[in-house]
Amino acid sequence: MKKALFLFFALLLTLTASAQFEKGKTYIGASLSGLNLSYNGSNEAQFGVNAVAGKFLADNVLLYGMAGFDHPGKGSDNAVNAGAGVRYYITQNGIFLGANAKYVHSNASYNDIMPGVEVGYAFFLSRTVTIEPAIYYQQSFKNHSDYSTVGLRIGLGIYLGKD
Q1: Is the pLDDT of residue 34 over 70?
Q2: Global confidence as pTM
Q3: 9 vs 5, 18, 51, 58, CA distance in Å?
Q4: Measured between alpha carbons, how far is 87 from 106 in angstroms, rounded to an integer?
Q5: 23, 79, 139, 145: most buried, per Cβ within 10 A?
Q6: SS3 state of residue 13
Q7: Which of 41-45, 49-53, 68-72, 104-108 is predicted most confidently?
Q8: Which residue, among 111, 108, 116, 109, has the nearest Cα to 86 in the 3D structure?
Q9: What does the alpha-carbon distance between residue 30 and residue 130 come to, in Å, rounded to a whole number?
């Protein structure tokens, strides 16, 4: 009896999580990156703020645009970025896999295109609001050893209903 009850609740949880990632839903999010937890050869630590907005093109597949601001720390110029990406949500457990590309510009005549990947988890606080920790990697085409970045991002996401 315990096994049947556990299976029923597990199935119910899976169906509830699945409903959050349906085709046609809208996603709005914001995140903090760095917080002295990211590292690259040039800056050692940085702080960044990002905004994300997107739409589910199919169940579990999110296409999004993003914009951000990075403060790389003492002695370096601030940078702005804009880009696009895609996420695939594994509905059974809330884990998502993502790929993106962004254009980065700073006043010090630094321009770069940086493709990246991420792995994260959508932890639902309510039916529509999530906390989303993610580990990411951004590859620099300009200078791999100085600007490619591995880091931790903490985000807040809001999943809005279908139109």
Answers
A1: no
A2: 0.79
A3: 6, 14, 35, 26
A4: 27
A5: 79
A6: helix
A7: 49-53
A8: 116
A9: 11
